[in-house]
Amino acid sequence: MVADTVMTFEFGLNRGRWPSPAVVLRLRGRLYTARRFHRLMVWMAPAVVAISGGWITAETGRRP
Question: For this UniProt entry, which segments traverse the membrane (predicted)?
Answer without folding.
Answer: 40-58
